[in-house]
Structure formats: structure tokens, C-alpha cells
Amino acid sequence: MTEQDPDQLADAALGSSESVRAFFGDRYDAIAAFAEKLRVEGELRGLIGPREVPRLWERHLLNSAAVLPHLSTATSIGDVGSGAGLPGIIVAIMRPDAQVYLIEPMERRTAWLFELRDELGLENVLVKRGRAEEYHGAFEVDVVTSRAVAALSKLARMSLPLVRRGGEMVVLKGRNVAQEIEPARKVLRSFKSSEPEIFEGITVDGVEPTTILRVRRG
């Protein structure tokens, strides 16, 4: 970080602010360690683009953390297409009481996830290398989440078979997610799913809310 990089300075200030520390509570140090590893190694290892490094806290860590209130009663959680660990590592840090499955097909990304699990001491994490479809029938969870993985119709086909009956798919999506609902109706009906609900996920003041979609498997 240099004085010539005002965006990164501002993002670092956000990350160390009292509001962010309060939001993450006693798990803040682990979140900050994840942020620092992502800042130092993320671009080099092809996990995030160079333009994302100066906005890690606002656009990635807090964005991912917006899903947490919707996972509060889950004891098992799956993160489909976990990638750099967003939101899966955030979830695992904040919910040490829940079993968290990080599902990721790319070897270099799963190597990263294994490293994070070990370095951060996340005993509740299970890293599963492969596509979500490869684990249909292998296990079920209370909630499946994901972030910017696929359009809702495809995402539902990938994710809902991993969800126990009565469980939920709670995903971080773009602002236009409402437009994805109608094309996904057939898939959602096949799982006897509830009507999709769209929420604003709010973390700390001054950070743009995240769009969250929730659907319950029947």
C-alpha cells in the first residue's frame, strides 16, 4: 500500500474502523488475517482481479458477510463455487458452531481453501473439490449459499439438490436478480420450492447493501 493508492488506503481504513470491528466482534482478527492474505496473494494466485485489491473490505468481505443473518439457525452450510472463499471462509469464521462445506472445482482454488482452513484454524471447514453436481446425493445441508456463480435457473439446479427438505438456498446476487426468477420457475417448481424472496443485506453504515435471494426447498 502506498500514498499513491488512495482507494486502498480508504479500504484499509474501513477495514480497521470501529464499525467493522464491532460488526465482526471477537472474530475480527481472523477476518482481518483472511483479508491480508487475500490482499497479498489474491491477485498473484488468480483469485481476484487487480482492480479488486483496493476494495477488498467493501466489495468482498463485507459484501459476503451480508448473508450471515440469514444463516443464523443453520448447523450445516454449503458454499457452491467457493473460489477465493467468498462467502464460505467468512461464514466459517463467523459460524464456528456450523459445519461448512466449501465446494470448488478448480485445483488451485481448493489448494488456497485448504491453506486458509489450516492457517486460520477452521476445524469446521470441509473442502470438496469438484462441481456441486458431483455431490448430489453425497450429503445435504441446512443452507446452501453462493456469490455471483450463475444465473438463478442454473444455480438452483446446482444447489437445491444439496439442500435438505425444508432447508434454504440463500445467495448473494446482483441488483437485477428479480429478472432471473421467471426463467427459473420450472426448476424451482421441480423442488417444490417457495416463492423466492429478495432482501437487502446490510452490514455497516456507508457500505452499499448486498442483494440477497432466499428460497426454501419443499
From TrEMBL:
Keyword S-adenosyl-L-methionine: yes
Record key words, sorted: Cytoplasm, Methyltransferase, rRNA processing, S-adenosyl-L-methionine, Transferase
Compartmental location: Cytoplasm
Enzyme class per UniProt: transferase
Enzyme Commission code(s) on record: 2.1.1.-
InterPro entries, per the entry: rRNA_ssu_MeTfrase_G, SAM-dependent_MTases_sf
Chief subcellular location: cytoplasm
UniProt-annotated binding residues for S-adenosyl-L-methionine: 81, 86, 132-133, 147
Similarity annotation: Belongs to the methyltransferase superfamily. RNA methyltransferase RsmG family.
Role description: Specifically methylates the N7 position of a guanine in 16S rRNA.
UniProt protein name: Ribosomal RNA small subunit methyltransferase G
Species in which this protein is naturally found: Isoptericola hypogeus
Gene it is expressed from: rsmG
